[in-house]
Design a protein that fits this description.
339 residues; alpha+beta; Dna Ligase, domain 1; D-amino Acid Aminotransferase, Chain A, domain 1; 4-stranded antiparallel β-sheet; globular
Length: 339
Amino acid sequence: MKKKLKILALFDAIRPTGIEEDLTAELKTDDWKTEAGVLAALRELGHAVEHLALFDDLDLLRQKIAGFAPDLIFNLADQFRNNRAFDQNIASFLALNGIPFTGCGPTGLMLCKHKAISKKILSYHRIHTPAFVTLPRGRRIARPKQLRFPILIKPLKEESSIGISQASFVETDEEFRERVAFIHEKYDNDVIAEEYIDGRELYVSILGNRRLQVLPIRELVFREVPPDEPKIATYKAKWDEEYRRRWGLQNQDAVGLEPGVVRQIEAVCRRIYHLLTIDGYARLDLRLTPDNTLHFIEANPNPMLAPDEDFALSALKAGISYPQLIDRIARLGLATTRE
């Protein structure tokens, strides 16, 4: 029988919190469904569980660790002071203090967050990525002539499709300049501009540290989008249910992939996972062209873990129940060597 653990579930908050903050109301909302699901699963598994929501005070975390003395921190904190770029710093703090924690370490978080660095690493290893250029804030906006239209304009270091809309798809230099300037100003973020890859939008979930389990492939399908229109995983395409219904957008198990193509996708995804030094669990976003060429779009370490999200649904398809998945992630966190 597996040893029951003392687990501190660490969340992020959008406002200052106290060490004994009552999160009952938050945990009943859709925005907190991952946190609620993980807490329920850990308790169902018989672990001793406490939680802390972190905004900007690391001393609260120190106090909680000293008082509770957890065996493991289940890390669901992906921002600090409302800044998502600090997820790697939270992982660094936990690693420096020698506390086992779930999910990806700081190096993997940093490499995956910076969309250009991850693509440069994978291109060096001959993994297909879209041609791209980065456009820092404060410099003249110009498209390199070798970057061909149509082009997608994205924030360089955002997640969850933040900053991506239909206007991100540009076909002229004027549209290019306008969208880049908009991202610079609106999101205070540098830009990555990459050539649009027409193809199937695939999501591949992976579980493990050195030995990896690639879970069944999921896909975002665009049922009502006309054939000549771009199919983009915009912010609304992911999170706006009315928009998803209007355009027939649905996340589902990928169907019709030839067994050889599935094996190729799994092999490439294992390489990506190791090359980007990901630990614990991740979801890789890919495009598969009509001639079955696979293009890496981005890596998402520590993806959303709610029971109705792609990662948990892929695990369920593989025969892993939600509590079993949460337990696997916890045990992987205990076994991870942080360097």
